Amino acid sequence: KDALDYLANKAGKRYLGTAIQSYQLVNNPQYVQILESQFDAITPENEMKWEVVEPTEGNFDFSGTDKIVAEAKKTGSIVRGHNICWDSQTPAWVTSITDPKRLKEVLKNHIDAVIGRYKDDLAYFDIVNEPLNENGTYKSNVWYNVLGESYIETALRYAHEVAPNMKLCINDYNIETVNAKSKAMAVLSAKLLAKNAPLHCIGFESHFIGGSTPKDIPASMRQFSDLGLEVPMTELDVRIPVTANDQPANATVAKAQVDDYYTSISACLGNDMCPGVSIWQFADPTSWIPGVFKGYGAALLYDAEYQPKSTYYVVQQALRDG
Ligand code: G3I
User: Could you confirm whether 161 is annotated as catalytic?
Assistant: First the structure.
């Protein structure tokens, strides 16, 4: 009765999810035990990205995602698909295409294969990932450069054709506050909805820094929920400065981190259109943070021994209070 997914469900039928990598299902029983006992939503951290699923044209590798979907079915968890159109982890055979007609064909084939295979297995899918720059303009990537802004609508429509029941999201970071980027995302969302495009959700990635987590997450969420869109938190983690062995650098940052987890979970619970929160992995040794932000880490809920940390207990508390 203390499990995070149980408490999230009690706090208004939300899910409490996590990103995982499929190899951990095979060789890490402690990891699987926590996954199965605490979480009821799974996002493949890398397994569904284009370079993994279709590394060369027409050659699909579903082995990682198949394992994740089987695990989810075993425990009745939902799966969030991630992702189709992105500027990263997309193979050169795709990013080198310059002909719009050919790029659309390649996109359609990929969506038919990937989303078609899992059309009854995935509840949500981040179809378009990180499309905007900080100033709200479109990010340069093969999709925008070759197809223009219509690539977003095109990808959503292709996906909806194959999986009419799947909820389709645009997912991005730094939209958790009311700023140029989130305002541009709201304009884009309204435009898509006005064209009846199948857009159902805006994913708030929520990669935060202890002490700098936005105070106005609720206001930013309302920019989208007022349009009728769901606002899942999709990749929550709160990084802090750490010592050489991945411990909080001092008590101040540790306290800020705990407060920020509370604020983040409460923001979701405060909006009826937030279906749940997914954290981006749950144990510190498997987090992407230390590899990318030198000197930062300890961003998740469990330590290197897979013991729950104060961050775990504050998430529990926020769910109970919610
Ligand atoms: O699989 C290869 C392995 O074969 C190779 O030996 C090794 C050597 O570097 O690399 C492995 O690939 C790595 C991959 O993760 C799988 O572990 C890549 O180098 C590494 O860059 C990749 O990082 C992922 C990152 O996306 C890529 O942009 C992170 O795990 C993943 O957490 C991160 O997730 C993103 C979300 O998709 C979108 N939002 C931001 C978030 C954090 O960056």
Answer: yes
Cα of 3 vs centre of ligand 1, distance in Å, is: 29
CA of 219 to the centre of ligand 1 (A): 31
Element (H, E) at 114: helix 100-117
Phi then psi dihedrals of residue 299, to 5 deg: -85, -10
DSSP 139: P
Q: ipTM value, please give it.
A: 0.93
- Residue 281 CA: nearest ligand 1 atom is 32
- Residue with structure tokens 């909805």? 193
User: 134 an active-site residue?
Assistant: no
Q: What is the pLDDT of residues 159-184, one digit of tens each?
A: 999 999 999 999 999 999 999 999 99
How many structural domains are present in the chain? Answer: 1
Q: What are phi and psi of 170, to 5 degrees?
A: -105, 135
- Pairing status of strand 124-129 against strand 201-204: unpaired
pTM: 0.97
81 class by beta-carbon count within 10 Å (0-12 exposed, 13-18 middle, 19+ buried): buried
Question: Which of 71, 205, 235, 305 does the annotation list as catalytic?
Answer: 235
Residue 158 belongs to domain with CATH number: 3.20.20.80
Give mean pLDDT, residues 186-197: 98
Domain that holds residue 268: 4-321
- Supply 12's token pair: 């208004």
**How do residues 229-281 score in pLDDT, each as one tens digit?**
999 999 999 999 999 999 999 999 999 999 999 999 999 999 999 999 999 99
Q: How far is the CA of 193 from the centre of ligand 1 (A)?
A: 32
